[in-house]
Design a protein that fits this description.
Elements (H helix, E strand, L loop, with lengths): L12 H15 L12 E5 L11 H19 L3 E5 L1 E2 L3 H14 L4 H20 L2 H8 L10 E2 L3 H16 L3 E11 L4 E3 L4 E17 L2 E10 L10 E4 L13 E3 L6 E6 L12 E3 L5 H10 L25 H14 L3 E14 L7 E10 L2 H12 L4 E3 L3 H10 L4 E2 L1 E2 L9 E4 L5 E3 L15 E3 L3 E2 L1 H5 L2 H4 L8 H6 L2 E7 L3 H16 L4 E7 L2 E2 L16 H8 L1 H9 L8 E2 L2 H25 L19 H22 L3 H23 L1 H4 L5 H21 L4 H8 L24 H23 L8 E6 L3 H9 L1 H8 L1 E6 L10 E6 L2 E6 L6 H27 L1 H6 L2 H26 L5
Helix pairs in contact: 3-4, 9-10, 9-14, 15-16, 16-17, 17-19, 17-21, 18-19, 18-21, 18-23, 19-21, 21-22, 23-25, 26-28
Length: 889
C-alpha cells in the first residue's frame, strides 16, 4: 500500500497489466492449491489453432472461462484451468504449403518427412503467438500444464482411442459421401465450410421417356455437369401425376443412358415439377436414396476437380468448363427448356475458398449409432447440464439423427492413421506399435496409410487426454470429469457431442458436468464481423489502447447468456469510464484516510447501534449484491452480475453513499468519521472482489491500496452473505430518501430553479410512522435536495396553491414554487408520469395474470411483483391527486 501522493491520478492499464500478470504467474496463483481434501474445480481451454490470431470470438470465449475460474478460485476450490493449442491440421498444412510455394517448392516434391520438418519449424516459430495474446487478455490458466494436440502424451491418447474403437468395431474403412476440397486435396469437416450467397442459375432440362421421345420429365438442377453420374429419376410415392411411370425408364440426355423412375419420400411433390434427378456419387441425399434403392454409383469427378473418363467426351474438363459445355450441348440438342437466375448458398472451403464438392470417397469412419445412445442419455437424464438449456434441443436433434463420422484427411500434418496395408494379401493391420509382419499372412510387405486423422478426433479426447489418459494419473483422478466447459454454440455438434460420446466410451464417465454456451460477437449493427464488410475489430488493439479490463467489460455489458452479442467502441469507452470511476473512489477514500500506515476499523469492531442510516443502507445493499452475484456467477450470467456490481459501485456507493458521508469525512476526527472510512474500505474491498473475475487488473490494483486486505486479490476469499448485515427497514427508508431527492432534483431541473437556490418543501403521509422514518434522515434529504425547510402538513387540503408535487410510495412531497413554476410544463410533466405509471401497471398486471410465471417463479419473486404493482397503483393515485390540485389555467 503506497502513500496517497504515489497513487496515479488515473489507472494506467498499459503500464501495469503485463507486469501484474507476471506477478500473478510468479506467485503460483494459477496452479491448484495443495490438495487438502477441498472440493476441486476443473475446466479445460478449448484449444485455439496454432495458426490463429486472437479475435473477438476468442476474447469472449477465453474471458468467460477465466471469469468462471477466478470465481471458483476465490471460493476456495482447488482449481485447475488447463490451457493448450490445437495443431489445426488443414489450417497449418495450408500455411506451410503456401510458404513452400513462395519459395518455389511443392509439398509432393520434397516428400512427407521433409514437409513435416517444415511444419514443425513453422509451429516452433508461430505456434506460441496466440499463447502470448491469451496472456494479454489476463487469462489465469496453469501454463505449467499447457498441452498441444500433437505432443507425446496426447498422441498416445489418440493412438489408444483409435485402436480401442477399431477393436470394438466402431471404426471401419468404407466408401461414403464426404465434403471434398479439390484445391486442398482432402476431405473436410462441416466446421471447415463457409456458406456464401452467390449468383447462380437454375437449368430446366428434358429427360425423355423411353420409347416416347415426344414425352419427357422436367428436371431442374443448379449443377448440370453432375448429370453425367445420374442413375435414376425420383418422384414422390403419393404424386398421382407420375404414379403410372414408377418402374418405367427415361433417357439421360447427351449420355443416352437408361434411368429408372423410382418413388421416394425424400422428393417434395410440390417443389418444381416434382421430379428429381438422382446422382448418388455427388449428392449426400442422393447417396442415401441410392442405398435405399440399390442404385449404381457413378463417380465422374476426380480428386483434383476434373471430369474423369466416365464423363465420356467431357473427360479432362474442369467442373466449370464442363458445366458450360454441357449447357451448350443440351441447348443445341433441344434438351434445355429454360434457365433462371437465382441466389444460391455455395459451400466454400474456409481455408482456400474453393467450392466444396460432395463426393463419394474411400475413407475411415466412426460408426456413430451405438456410441450416440449413452451420449444422448447423459444429457436427457441431467448428468450433463446445458446453460442455457434450450441448446439441449439442438444437441438431441443432432445426436438422434447422427451420421457416421469421417475421420480421415488426405493431409500429412496431424496424427497419422495407425493402419498398415499388407501388399500381398491386402489385410488391414491396425496396431499401437509399428507392425513387423501382417497379422494374416505374416508378410513383411506392409505400407502405412498415408492419411491423418480429422483434427476433431484429437479434440474429442481433450477433457481427459490433457489430464494424462490413458494413464491413470492423479490429475485424472482429481480433475475428471471436468466441472465446466465453455464454448460457442456454433461447434456444439462438431465438438461438444464428440467429447461427450468419447468421454463416456473411453472413461465410462461424462467429460464435464456443465456446458455453458455463448453466441457470436457481432458489430454494433448486428452483422457478423468479416474482412469483406471491413467491420472486424482487433482485440489486441483495444488492449493496447484501453486495457484488457475495458475489453472484457465491453464483451459482457448488455449481453444475454447463449445469445449473440453486439460489440461497439462505445462499450469499450463505458468500461474505461467505469474503471476511472472506481479509481477515483479509491483516491477519494485514500485522500481522506491520510497516512498510509493508518489502520481502519473492521466491521466486527463496530456496534450496529453506532451505524447511521446511510451506513446500514449501503451495507445492506452490498450484502444483497454479494448474494445475487454468487447466484449470477454460478449460472454463468456474467452480464447480469456486471450490471448489478456496476449499479452498486457507481450509483449506490459512489454517487450516493460517498456524497452523503462527505460531511462526516470533513470532521477532523471522531467515531462517526472512523466508521465512514471503515465502511468505505469495506465496500471498496468487497466490490473489487466481486468484480475481479470480470475486470481482474484494475481490481487487483485497487485492492493493493486498501487496508485489512490479503496480499493478492486473485487468491482472496470470495465475499459471503452475512445475516447480521441485513438492515431491511433502514434500506427501505434510505431508498425513500434517495427517490425523494431524485424527485426534487427533477422538479428543480424542469422548472429551471437555480442550482444554488434553496427551496422550502412540504411533506405529507397518512402513515405517521413513514413520516417519522423519513424525518430521521431529514438532514441528508435537505442537504442533497437543497431544501431550506421541510414542514409536515396534516392534509393535502393544507397545500398552498400552485405547488409542484413529487409522489412516492405512501408519501408525497410538495414544493411551493408559485413564482418559479411554469404550470403548463408542470401539468405536462405530471401527465407524462401518470401515463408512464399506467403503462407500468398494465405490464405488471399482465405479468401477474400469466399463470405460467405465477406457478413456476419462486414465491418470494411473485410476492415482490405483487408489491411492485401496489406501489405503482399508490404512485398513480398520488400523481393524479397532484394533477387535480394544479391551477385550472
Amino acid at each position: 500500500m503506497r502513500d496517497f501522493d504515489s497513487i496515479p491520478k488515473h489507472f494506467e492499464p498499459c503500464k501495469t497489466e503485463q507486469e501484474m500478470y507476471q506477478q500473478w504467474a510468479d506467485s503460483g496463483c494459477f496452479k491448484p492449491v495443495e490438495d487438502q481434501g477441498q472440493e476441486c474445480f476443473a475446466i479445460v481451454m478449448p484449444p485455439p489453432n496454432i495458426t490463429g490470431q486472437l479475435h473477438m470470438g476468442h476474447a469472449l470465449d477465453l474471458s468467460m472461462q477465466d471469469i468462471a475460474v477466478r470465481f471458483k478460485r476465490m471460493q476456495g476450490k482447488r482449481t485447475v484451468y488447463v490451457p493448450g493449442t490445437d495443431h489445426a491440421s488443414i489450417a497449418t498444412e495450408a500455411k506451410v504449403v503456401e510458404k513452400l510455394r513462395n519459395e518455389g517448392r511443392e509439398k509432393r516434391e520434397i516428400g512427407r518427412e521433409a514437409f513435416l520438418k517444415e511444419a514443425w519449424d513453422w509451429n516452433d516459430k508461430y505456434g506460441s503467438k496466440i499463447v502470448e495474446q491469451t496472456r494479454r487478455l489476463g487469462i489465469s490458466c496453469d501454463w505449467s500444464r499447457q498441452r498441444f494436440t500433437l505432443d507425446e502424451g496426447l498422441s498416445k491418447a489418440v493412438l489408444e482411442a483409435f485402436c480401442r474403437l477399431y477393436e470394438k468395431g466402431y471404426i471401419y474403412r468404407g466408401e461414403r459421401m464426404i465434403n471434398w476440397c479439390a484445391d486442398c486435396g482432402t476431405s473436410i469437416s462441416d466446421a471447415e465450410i463457409d456458406y456464401e450467397e452467390a449468383d447462380a442459375k437454375f437449368y430446366y432440362l428434358k429427360y425423355p421417356l423411353k420409347g416416347q421421345p415426344d414425352k419427357y420429365l422436367e428436371i431442374a438442377t443448379t449443377r448440370p455437369e453432375t448429370m453425367l453420374g445420374d442413375t435414376a429419376v425420383a418422384v414422390h410415392p403419393d404424386d398421382e401425376r407420375y404414379a403410372a411411370l414408377v418402374g418405367e425408364k427415361c433417357i439421360l440426355p447427351l449420355v443416352e443412358r437408361e434411368l429408372e423412375i423410382i418413388s421416394d419420400n425424400y422428393v417434395e411433390a410440390d417443389f418444381g415439377s416434382g421430379c428429381v434427378k438422382i446422382t448418388p456419387a455427388h449428392d449426400p441425399n442422393d447417396f442415401e436414396i441410392g442405398l435405399r434403392h440399390d442404385l449404381e454409383i457413378i463417380d465422374v469427378i476426380t480428386d483434383d476437380g476434373k471430369i474423369n473418363e466416365l464423363g465420356g467426351v467431357y473427360a479432362g474438363l474442369s467442373i466449370n468448363d464442363c458445366r458450360e459445355q454441357i449447357v451448350r450441348d443440351l441447348e443445341a440438342k433441344g434438351y434445355l427448356i429454360k434457365v433462371e437466375d437465382m441466389k444460391h448458398n455455395i459451400a466454400l472451403c474456409s481455408r482456400c475458398h474453393s467450392v466444396i464438392e460432395p463426393k463419394l470417397s474411400l475413407q475411415w469412419w466412426v460408426a456413430m449409432e451405438e456410441l450416440a445412445k449413452p451420449a444422448i442419455a447423459a444429457v436427457k437424464d441431467g448428468s450433463i447440464e446445458f446453460i442455457p438449456d434450450h441448446f439441449v434441443k439442438t444437441y438431441l436433434n443432432w445426436m438422434e439423427n447422427i451420421r457416421d463420422w469421417c475421420i480421415s484427411r488426405q493431409l500429412w500434418w496431424g496424427h497419422r492413421i495407425p493402419a498398415w496395408y499388407c501388399e500381398d494379401c491386402e489385410e488391414i493391420n491396425v496396431s499401437r506399435e509399428v507392425p513387423t509382419e501382417c497379422s494374416h499372412c505374416h508378410s513383411t510387405h506392409l505400407k502405412q496409410d498415408e492419411d491423418t486423422l480429422d483434427t476433431w478426433f484429437s479434440s474429442a479426447l481433450w477433457p481427459f487426454s490433457t489430464l494424462g489418459w490413458p494413464e491413470q494419473t492423479k490429475d485424472l483422478a482429481d480433475f475428471y470429469p471436468n466441472n465446466l466447459l465453455i464454448t460457442g454454440y456454433d461447434i456444439l455438434p462438431l465438438w461438444v457431442s464428440r467429447m461427450i460420446f468419447s468421454g463416456l466410451e473411453h472413461t465410462g464417465q461424462v467429460p464435464f458436468r456443465q456446458v455453458g454456451y455463448h453466441g457470436l460477437v457481432r458489430d454494433d449493427q448486428g452483422r457478423k464481423m468479416s474482412k469483406s464488410l471491413g467491420n472486424g475489430i482487433d482485440p489486441l488493439e483495444i488492449i493496447d489502447s484501453s486495457g484488457a479490463d475495458s475489453l472484457r467489460y465491453a464483451l459482457f455489458w448488455g449481453t444475454s447468456v447463449g445469445k449473440d452479442m453486439r460489440f461497439s467502441e462505445q462499450k469499450v469507452e463505458a468500461g474505461r469510464n467505469f474503471m476511472n470511476k472506481l479509481w477515483n473512489a479509491l483516491r477519494f477514500y485514500r485522500m481522506n484516510l491520510g497516512d498510509s500506515s493508518k489502520t481502519v476499523l473492521k466491521l466486527s469492531e463496530i456496534d450496529s447501534a453506532e451505524l447511521k442510516l446511510e451506513d446500514k443502507w449501503i451495507l445492506d445493499q452490498l450484502n444483497e449484491l454479494i448474494k445475487d452475484s454468487a447466484r449470477n456467477f454460478e449460472r454463468l450470467d456474467f452480464s447480469l452480475a456486471l450490471e448489478k456490481i456496476s449499479h452498486f459501485a457507481w450509483d449506490q456507493f459512489c454517487d450516493w453513499y460517498v456524497e452523503i458521508v462527505k460531511d462526516r469525512l470533513n470532521q477532523k476526527a471522531g467515531k462517526s468519521r472512523e466508521i465512514a472510512l471503515a465502511i468505505m474500505n469495506h465496500c471498496l474491498s468487497e466490490t473489487v472482489k466481486l468484480l475481479h473475475p470480470i475486470m481482474p487488473f484494475v481490481t487487483e490494483a485497487i485492492y493493493a491500496e486498501l487496508l485489512n486486505t490479503e496480499s493478492l486479490l486473485i487468491s482472496a476469499q470470495w465475499p459471503e452473505y452475512q445475516a447480521d448485515l441485513e438492515f431491511k427497514e433502514a434500506a427501505e427508508n434510505m431508498e425513500q430518501i434517495i427517490n425523494a431527492v431524485r424527485g426534487i432534483r427533477n422538479v428543480r431541473a424542469e422548472q429551471n430553479v437555480p442550482a444554488g437556490k434553496e427551496v422550502d418543501a412540504l411533506i405529507y403521509s397518512s402513515d405517521q410512522a413513514i413520516v417519522e422514518r423519513f424525518m430521521e434522515a431529514e438532514a441528508i434529504f435537505r442537504r442533497l435536495a437543497r431544501v431550506a425547510e421541510l414542514k409536515l402538513i396534516d392534509s393535502l387540503d393544507d397545500l398552498p396553491e400552485n405547488t409542484s408535487s413529487v409522489a412516492l410510495p405512501k408519501l408525497s412531497l410538495h414544493l411551493p414554487l408559485a413564482d418559479l413554476i411554469d404550470w403548463a410544463q408542470e401539468r405536462e410533466r405530471l401527465e407524462k408520469e401518470s401515463q408512464n405509471l399506467e403503462q407500468l401497471i398494465t405490464a405488471q398486471e399482465r405479468k401477474l395474470a400469466n399463470q405460467n410465471f405465477v406457478q413456476r417463479a419462486p414465491a418470494q419473486v411473485v410476492d415482490a411483483e405483487r408489491e411492485k404493482l401496489k406501489n405503482y397503483e399508490a404512485l398513480l393515485k398520488q400523481t393524479n391527486e397532484s394533477l387535480a390540485n394544479l391551477p385550472k389555467s
